[in-house]
Amino acid sequence: MSVWKVSGGKKLFGDIRIQGSKNAVLPIMAAAIITGCETELLNCPQLSDVEAAMAILRHLGCKAERDGDTVWIDSRGMNRTDIPHDLMREMRSSVIFLGAILARAHEAALSYPGGCELGARPIDLHLEALRSLGAEISEQGGSLYCRDKGLKGARINLSFPSVGATENAMLAACGAEGETVITNAAKEPEIIDLQDFLRKLGAEITGAGSSTITISGFVPQEKIGHRVMTDRIVSATALCCTASAGGCVTLKGVVPAYFETVTSVLESMGCEIERRSTSVKITSDGKLHAPRPIVTRPYPGFPTDAQPLLMAASLKAAGTTVFTENIFENRYRHVPELLRFGADISVVGRVAVVTGVNELIAAPVTAADLRGGAALITAALGARGLTTVYDTGHVVRGYDDFDKMLLSLGADISYDPETLASVV
Ligand code: UD1
After folding, report:
1. Does the pLDDT value for residue 420 go beyond 60?
2. Which of ligand 1's atoms lies nearest the C-alpha of 23?
3. Rounded to the nearest whole angstrom, what is the distance from the C-alpha of residue 122 to the centroid of ligand 1?
4. Containing H/E element for 283?
5. d(C-alpha 317, C-alpha 95), whole Å
6. DSSP structure string for 361-414
7. Residue 238 contacts by C-beta under 8 Å, 6 or more apart in sequence?
8. For residues 286, 291, 296 and 300, what is the CA-based torsion angle, rounded to 10 degrees?
């Protein structure tokens, strides 16, 4: 089991470049198979989920290679339409390949992705969207079998602005004849990055970032290049870590508007914020006060992925912080672990109430999911003593060299990929 050891109480100082976005690169990698073409993707984070997507591409008969932060995909030789269970299981969001495979080959067989640590995570909206375009989908023995006799453009009204369902609908619509209009679409910045990529691939597509996306045609291109957007949740993480530990950190190469909801909450807690066109500087003396209630909502609301991180940053904030988690039913798994630091948190249903304490004391803690694990490190940076964070495999799914980033800012953190867990 991999372990991080964090000695708290060190302020963070310096400049950092933020990695490419995990949630943007995965649908883009799936999109690279819509037509047979060669794709060069820059700013790809080195993450196990990206490796898993490359493994799926190779299984499908494509070439996928990495050199540093650049990934090359050649999808001209794609010769399969199935994704077996062991590859699906590696990465829940591999369901995003469904729309792309259908657009290219008009048949697909995938093992059902199932739930995850955040809850049941159904895919009914994905399937409904694909059915609207003419896909016939059956579910048998834990697998999904899909085929179509030529996808036809349609009006797709999502009953909830699901990020994944919006992306799957966009990908499949690229292989459909006629116009597709997606209403109540997700507005997340990653959808805009996907639209930018699809345009380079040859799609006539407009509206990403608003609630209506229109795909009206496709002229395939042979070779394309794209730079993946920077990760807004990693940006939010770096801000919360600095708020928790204290210090002064500048995030470079970012789009400040994409994580403004998090920045403005930290500002209201007493952090000093300086916004520039592609950078954000945060200064914190570690003495914070509780912000207004935090309610997670689809973009442009407060991101669910940043809820555990902000909670970790609010543990010592004077007063009471109230969180309402509206997106995932099981997103407070970090709370019992944060309590080990001496935090005061109570949870009733979707609501968590944090009462600020004077001090956090280091403790052995275990990561239960990706952002919850990052939240434990955020808390540890502001705690007195040496914290051991177990099961950090969850965290490296979303953070490229998280420990190196924090080390470069002066944190006292070490990573041991092999430590065996003692009783925690
Ligand atoms: C994406 C992000 C994830 C983020 C989430 C919300 C990726 C790889 N992951 O996940 O980090 O936390 O957006 O911003 O981009 N739902 C249904 N039926 C469906 C689809 C979703 O009921 O068919 C529900 C989900 O269970 C969840 C909610 O809708 O409760 C939001 O899910 P969705 O927006 O689809 O999130 P993901 O795309 O899975």
Report:
1. no
2. 15
3. 9
4. strand 279-284
5. 40
6. B--EEE--SHHHHHHHHHHHHTSBSEEEEE-THHHHTT-SSHHHHHHHTT-EEE
7. 16, 18, 249, 251, 405
8. -90
E strands, 18-135, where?
38-42, 63-67, 70-74, 82-83, 107-111
Catalytic residue among 116, 146, 241, 248: 116
How far apart (Å, rounded) are the C-alpha atoms in residues 39 and 74?
Answer: 6
Q: Quick one: which of 51, 53, 45 has its CA closest to 22?
A: 45
Question: 195: closest CA among 344, 57, 1, 24?
Answer: 24
Instruction: Judge whether 116 counts as a catalytic residue.
Output: yes
Residues, the chain? 424
CATH architecture label of 22-227: Alpha-beta prism (3.65)
DSSP string, 148-170: -SS-B--EEE-SS--HHHHHHHH
For domain 2-19+230-416, the CATH superfamily is: Enolpyruvate transferase domain (3.65.10.10)
pLDDT tens-digit map of 218-261: 999 999 999 999 999 999 999 999 999 999 999 999 999 999 99
Q: Where in the chain is the domain with CATH 3.65.10.10?
A: 2-19+230-416, 22-227
Identity (one letter) of the amino acid at 313? A
For the beta carbon of residue 17, count every other beta carbon within 10 angstroms: 11
Phi, psi of 201 (to 5 degrees): -70, -20
Q: Please state, as a whole number, how many other Cβ atoms lie within 10 Å of the Cβ of residue 22.
A: 24
CB-based contacts of 348: which residues, under 8 Å, 6+ apart?
Answer: none
Q: Is the CB of 165 under 6 A from ligand 1?
A: yes
Ligand 1 pocket mutation pick from 118, 131, 160 by most atoms within 8 angstroms of CB: 160
User: What are 365-379's pLDDT values in tens digits?
Assistant: 999 999 999 999 999
| Backbone φ, ψ for residue 415 (5° rounding) | -115, 130
